[in-house]
């Protein structure tokens, strides 16, 4: 099947006509259990009644006015984010990469506003993913995303995670900020230790640097707190958010303290679509559900249940699963077999999971997932493991016959 779409995605030949909670109805007539949630985006699953209502009601009123005018729904969403985080101010974007662009520009402008424009460099970490714009591929530092796109945007220095000496050596008179994901998502659900994050905070404080957390994947309840930094005892100065905050509607945000944001005065940054009334209505509806009493405690409990069940699977299938890692409903299975083969085997059991670096299959179910659906997913993963083991056994037998 040929397609007029730019072939930058290696798409699975599968599409869906309807979604309900954690389930997707494929056009192939099959029902899939969705443990990918559109890459951690559908935080409340598919067709959540509260989100459908908020979007359709807003659609009947006003879609877009531009940021030339006040947008009350946006002021309300920003206030709720401020009330529930370290931040004092919020900039809304359409995507994660744009939220990070705002964060990067803000960190540079902070020093420029303080009379030190030479401080523009940002230290980032190996295995990072910050988006696909020119600046964010430079921040992410992955050769596979940079190759062929001309000179890398200047001003990013990368060091290994947990390597304090390398980090100290990378900080110089031009350094403006440190930027990190508390748990690397695309990199393979790799958790950064609280001790290392504390070192980052201390270095920022002693060198006058800003600490940027990219919580685009870890945020909005994914780990069982509204934001993952709440687990760490470390507070950033700037934080990027996207994915779950729109529940499937394109929405990102850059949150910051008033101190960090001081350079971002009228006219210094902008967006046409960012924070439009449709996006703001949905963002507020997402927060209605996630901030309801008990919701995040349930995410935490379900995350522990899932992790426990996955650990049991790993013990039963050591030839397939090497490691279970992650927090809350952000889980990774590092597989012994190629992760692509594992993901295909899960799909054959009508379970959708997604790949990540370090040969990991990511499990990112919607936060509204039920215990019975967690059990169902574990059973399907077990069936996938058994199918892969049967393949291994028959391959070994063919080897022995030859
Ligand atoms: C997905 C992601 C991004 C990029 O978000 P887009 O909306 O695709 O631009 C950036 N950082 C992290 C940690 C992400 O998971």
From TrEMBL:
Coiled-coil region(s) at which residues? 371-398
Is Amino-acid biosynthesis a UniProt keyword of this protein? yes
Catalyzed reactions per annotation? N(2)-acetyl-L-ornithine + 2-oxoglutarate = N-acetyl-L-glutamate 5-semialdehyde + L-glutamate
Q: Which Pfam families match?
A: Aminotran_3
Q: Which PROSITE patterns match?
A: AA_TRANSFER_CLASS_3
Specify the enzyme's EC class, one word.
transferase
Instruction: Fetch the SUPFAM superfamilies from UniProt.
Output: PLP-dependent transferases
UniProt keywords (A-Z) are:
Amino-acid biosynthesis, Aminotransferase, Arginine biosynthesis, Coiled coil, Cytoplasm, Pyridoxal phosphate, Transferase
What other comment is given for this protein?
May also have succinyldiaminopimelate aminotransferase activity, thus carrying out the corresponding step in lysine biosynthesis.
Q: Which PANTHER family match?
A: AMINOTRANSFERASE CLASS III, SUCCINYLORNITHINE TRANSAMINASE
UniProt protein name: Acetylornithine aminotransferase
Origin species: Microvirga arsenatis
Report which gene this protein is encoded by: argD
